Amino acid sequence: xxxxxxxxxxxxxxxxxxxxxxxxxxxxxxxxxxxxxxxxxxxxxxxxxxxxxxxxxxxxxxxxxxxxxxxxxxxxxxxxxxxxxxxxxxxxxxxxxxxxxxxxxxxxxxxxxxxxxxxxxxxxxxxxxxxxxxxxxxxxxxxxxxxxxxxxxxxxxxxxxxx
Length: 163
Description:
163 residues, alpha/beta
């Protein structure tokens, strides 16, 4: 089974959007995620600021505009067990890569990657910016960046993990 964890700081903007968009793309390709299938998707934050909370309303609004429903997602904090359970731990930016690296067991650090390493058609964009303190336009831009990252990662999985 392939297990993927998308990670940002508070788990209310970027990582739940990535979780929702990636799940949507898989479902459109006829692949359903969950423990009964061959893939499981989740998201978490390196901070515990919003644990138990729903994704930011602006993230939900933009995602829903594209047919992606984030309403059932709830914020949680990354745990040490996540490093053992997940095959891919995809951080939205370098700060979160550093945060993850400090709590990750040394033998599991190879699983931590910068999400945008997999993106297609995003020249010069190496991180997903945090839109939390911004307006709707930035949430729209972040959604587009995440969508491109998810497309590239899905392509990567098709080529390397035999979806």
